[in-house]
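Batch manifest, entry 17 of 40.
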Amino acid sequence: MTSTSSDGSYLHRVAAVLGAFRADDDEVGAAELARRTGLPKSTVHRIVLALVEEELLERRGQEVRLGLRLFEIGQRVPRQRVLRDAALPYMSDLREATRQTIHLAVLEGTEVVYVEILRSPGPDMPSRVGGRLPAHATGVGKAILAFSPPEVVREVLDGGLPRVSERTITAPGLFVKELERIRRDGVAYDREESGHGIVCAASPVLGRDGEVLGALSASGWSARIRLDRVAPAVHTAALALSRTLGRNDHR
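Output type: structure tokens
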């Protein structure tokens, strides 16, 4: 094995260990990380020690958690930083107008990643910044996919549309029709498709050339939100943010 291939293999193992942390984890032991990654315990132990030394992980007793340095590095990602900074004023206004939790998300592969969340004063939502969900099961994901190139939609369809809740759309034909409606109306809905009791209205955020950059949503518990009332505000906020990004040519 050459040095280059050896280094690449080690980096893949490091990435696997970091990727094994879940959104709801506080601290995790090396044995559990080994189980999640399928790597030998001795390998995980060495990687964990190196990551702790570099402050990418923090030790808490016999367990570790993601370190503050990882958060600091993540804040430098251009797409996230530019989009988030531009979106925050619109998100704040949208929260004030709807009194709901406001999400900003981007697409990564077949999943959405939440890059910013402004929480409502009511009961908390389970979403977290940095959290991921299958795109087809979320309002923000469907809003993004409706304005994405065909090959991006095909990748999601080829993934099989796994069921996340009892109401997740899992039939490809129905899903394609849903995307067509969203593209026509400019608003996507999650009606308990990502989780029991969780609903939202979402709209895409577009750049100057029509490229979809992400999506905004107003989310809440089904008993506390009227989607038909918040949808126009979400659509207006997303259009205004798109105009701002288009003027500044942030792509």
